[in-house]
Each structure stands twice: as C-alpha cells, then as structure tokens.
Write a structure and sequence with these properties.
The chain has helices spanning 4-29, 45-70, 74-96, 106-134, 141-175, 184-192, and strands at 34-35, 41-42. With 193 residues, the chain is mainly α.
C-alpha cells in the first residue's frame, strides 16, 4: 500500500515524465525545415535555393523584356515598368518572409538586396532611361551624360550585388552539400552581354 504522500509524489513524477515526453515530441516535430511565407516547407537546400532562384528568374525575364523593348518601342517598354514593380514586390514579399535554412539567412538576404536593386530599376532608373531616349534628337549633351552615368552606375552596382549573391549561393551550396547547376535565366543573361 502506498501512502498518500508517496502517491502524490509518484503522481507528480509521472506528470513530470509526461510533460518531458510532450516537450521531446514537440521538439522532434520541430525539425530544421524552413518555412516559406505561404506555408511552403523547404525540406532541403535544393528546394530553398530553387524557391529563391524561381523568383529571381521571373524578375530577370521581365528585365530582359524591358531591355529589349527600350531599343525598339519606348512606349511599350514604359508600359512594362509598372508590371515589373508588381513582379518584384511579389518576389520581395515571398523571399523576405522565408525562414532561415538551418540558421543561415545570408543567401536569402543577398537575394533580397538584389531584388531591391531590381525594384529601383523599374521605379527609377529605367524610367529615366526611357524619358531621355524619348527625347530622341532633342536630347541635350547633359541628357546623354546622364544616360551614360545611369548605365555606368547600374552596371557597377549590379556587378557587385550579383557577385555577393553568387558567393552567398556558392557558400550555401557548399555548406549544404548541394550541387549548383547552370540555369536558363543565367544563359539568357550571358547571351545579352
């Protein structure tokens, strides 16, 4: 026969044991998977990487469309700028809301920095380029210098951001033992250079 005091001590230990089991189960369910903003779960580094690159690809494809039109049809290029802002804002929201991957946020944060640069292209830089190009023969020497300055600054800023993103992606891939493959978007970019 167990005394009342022993019974409560035993019951308390049992409750402590049940609480400990519950906590262990709770932590085991909380695996190192990263969550996306829409509840998407990234079970591995490839899925995490692909989510970022998918959004970057959408933006880059739109930039390439705008760039092609700037040389052919300025009104159409200008019309695409607003859509570019929407595409970029959507990508920014999705990628910013991603969780870390095993404590790593560097790759995600570098992608966000690139996307913010792309947004500036659509809201400011491309608009200035289109505006100057619309002047045609009426463009002044100051306009031409402004255009050259914008293009030079963009190339410099983009090169630095791309280098940082590429390095972050390479580090992410090495850390997670993930092979990096060429993608179609990079091939398109390389073909325009």
């Amino acid at each position: 026969m167990v005394s009342t005091e022993g019974f409560f001590l035993h019951l308390g230990m049992r409750n402590h044991y049940l609480n400990l089991c519950f906590v262990l189960i709770l932590f085991s369910c909380n695996s190192p998977e990263s969550k996306g903003p829409d509840g998407t779960t990234f079970k591995d580094a490839v899925a995490y990487n692909d989510f970022i690159i998918k959004h970057q690809g959408k933006i880059i494809n739109h930039i390439l469309s705008v760039s092609a039109l700037i040389g052919e049809d300025l009104d159409s290029a200008e019309a695409l700028l607003g859509k570019g802002v929407l595409i970029t804002d959507s990508a920014l929201a999705q990628v910013k809301a991603m969780g870390d991957f095993k404590g790593d946020t560097i790759f995600r944060n570098r992608a966000v920095a690139n996307f913010q640069f792309y947004r500036k292209l659509f809201t400011s830089d491309y608009r200035k380029i289109v505006s100057i190009n619309k002047k045609g023969e009426a463009a002044t020497e100051a306009d031409v210098e402004m255009l050259q300055s914008i293009q030079s600054n963009l190339e410099e800023e983009e090169a630095e951001l791309d280098k940082r993103l590429s390095n972050a992606q390479s580090d992410f891939a090495k850390k997670n033992k993930m092979p990096l493959l060429d993608n179609d978007v990079q091939k398109k970019i390389d073909s325009t250079e």
